[in-house]
Amino acid sequence: MNKTIVNPFKTLYCVVFSFFMFASIFVNAQEIIIDIEPDEVVLASSAPFALDFTNDATNDFSFRVQTMVGDTVLGGQPSTYDGSSAIVECFAGQPMGITANGSFSLTNMEGGTSVSSIDEFGLDASYPLGINLLIDAGIGIFPYVYGNFLGVSNQYLGVRFTDGGNTHYGWIELSVSAEADTIVVHSYGYNATPEESIDAGDSDASVFFSENLGIRVWNSSEFIHIETESDYLGSQFRLLSISGNELISTELIELSSEIDLSYLPKGLYLVHIYNGKQVFTERIYIR
What we know:
By secondary structure, the chain is mainly β. Helix content is 0%, strand content 58%. It has no helices and 23 strands. The protein has strands at 22-28, 31-43, 49-51, 61-74, 77-90, 93-100, 103-106, 114-115, 120-121, 126-136, 141-146, 155-163, 166-176, 182-191, 198-199, 207-212, 215-219, 223-228, 236-241, 246-251, 256-260, 267-274, 279-286. It starts with 21 loop residues before the first strand and ends with a strand.
């Protein structure tokens, strides 16, 4: 099957519009990939960032950074420690990893690595992505570092989660600072077909789905589907060719609309929706 990669954040057509923060979702067959734009940065001073893979009002994972300062005993010697821990909390999902010497640790994956039922997944409520501490034992200061995601950029955490009783496999693209004081969540994806594997970071897209605050747009081979909040009622919908020629123009008068595409040849098109205040612009691919 021929595939077309569509990235609306890095490839814009010649007319410049004012953009607002949103997430883009790519669908290839049954694979749904969400590119978070801008990236979500998690610090100790910020709120945790929760991921709900299927938008079913149940958080699957949450990421947080914890400042760690306190007293302990090391080798019988009273000690103090100071540092940070980058943590993934697991609610309706489990992270991929491996058990060695009786201890489970998260697996740091390269792009293209498969996530499937043959992998091992942790069942605890939370796991450290990385820990970086300085321990003062009175006779010297010693570093303590731990975690396969510590100091890595744009690597993948394999995951599984349940939706409606079905198990799905997915991934989350992360960067974690060497000090464990910053987590950056770049993107995430999953296979919408239960029990089917997925390759981490696979962004080939033959159908495009996008979601913005207050508006949701996706397309099949025959229709563009649009769901809006009331702020977008009365908005002007335009479908343009990739060269900028207007092909369809209509007013959105319903909260849920379908626009016929069946007579159009396959290829890339531009969706433009304007409500008088905000511009929503996306590329779609008709198969």
